[in-house]
């Protein structure tokens, strides 16, 4: 009897030990697969959560610092500007407080001379620019203030900070993310990578990824002496960590020249995050310098950043006009009926980055040719000023017609319109709307103008079943 009891106790103990072992194993497996699951109740990402690393040089910083001042907010932002040697005292301007505070750091060539660079005709400064990632993380990963994202760009990258923060707020910074966009030119992507974030348009690394990347970066770039740019090296090392590009079309490399109107007026429904190469295109507003044109654009950005360049299309049934509002930039009236899918094709007002033809002139987006005769093209109205009502928050933007020496029918031609006034409310999408954006609708409003040369337009959310087309 005693032996039976002892045998039963032994079997019971073995069973309990096996059960506990299995439970521990299941918990371990669950912990392994759920290690990346995060609490989704975290607060939204703000500008204060972002650290910027800007690659520059002593020669270029003097001119390009003015562009950085347009978007930099010293009260909210943290970051560094990297140059290869200390700046001369003549560049120590009294307005330096408007720039990244104490950020003109020096990562000298002798710090990168140990790395080989074999791209024929290239610039080994690419190694220095690539290591801005490492240096920025080293400077800020011990900060007492929370860092969720590291964002990198060139000194002529123009960020829209609010839109950047809202775009990044869609992502969990505790997971590994590499976010940016590619070139507009097929040939550029073929050379450097169809899934590489081009550095001029800027790219973002979640802090969790950036910290791991920084620990392995120097050893990684030793394997890539044959690559051209700094962004190529970052891309290669991110790939080695098993991470691919999360593409956001709001980042713009802008590998085009000439008149960029066609690209800007066909912008994605995603928020504008960055612009680049502005000194290589025509001023985006007429009768203006490049810098003053960008500064003028920011007068609209300051009032409604998430709406900038957002395209709404409506129709005048009486005249069969197609009216395209690229908010904060232009309104265009085409004197014929165009389907929305055709309006969204970028007008080829611009030229490719290279002149060699072939794949160098193949774009990565849909385009449409423009008429050789400027008088046969859509009538373009450029933003003059933007204001906000303190009474009800209505934002009014005013657009004036760009002059073209054309003859026209004073009754039926859109050229009879001299001014367009657009009324809207500040765009403030939630996370759900940011993840699945929908284009807004517009209406032609009745106007008190007696001369018939002023048009008023209202922008609003489309109704659930509302379609954007010309109604019979």
The CATH architecture term of the largest domain is Alpha-Beta Complex
Low-confidence segments, given as residue ranges, are 28-40
Task: Write down the CATH topology of the largest domain.
Answer: Spore Coat Polysaccharide Biosynthesis Protein SpsA, Chain A
- End-to-end separation: 97 Å
Oligomer: single chain
Helix content: 25-40%
Number of domains: 2
- Overall strand count: 21
Structure class: alpha/beta
SS summary, helix count: 12
Largest sheet: 8 strands, mixed
Question: What does the average pLDDT come to?
Answer: 90
Identify the overall geometry.
globular
**Strand arrangement, major sheet:** 11-12-13-17-18-19-21-20
Strand content: 15-25%
Q: What is the top-level CATH class of the largest domain? A: Alpha Beta
In short:
The protein is an alpha/beta fold and 472 residues long. The chain has helices spanning 2-33, 58-71, 125-130, 132-140, 161-168, 186-192, 207-221, 230-240, 261-264, 290-301, 340-343, 431-435; strands at 50-55, 78-83, 104-106, 149-154, 158-159, 178-180, 203-206, 245-247, 256-258, 274-275, 311-316, 321-326, 330-334, 346-347, 350-352, 367-368, 379-388, 395-401, 419-424, 441-445, 454-460. The protein has 2 domains: 47-247, Spore Coat Polysaccharide Biosynthesis Protein SpsA, Chain A (Alpha-Beta Complex), CATH 3.90.550; 307-460, no CATH class.
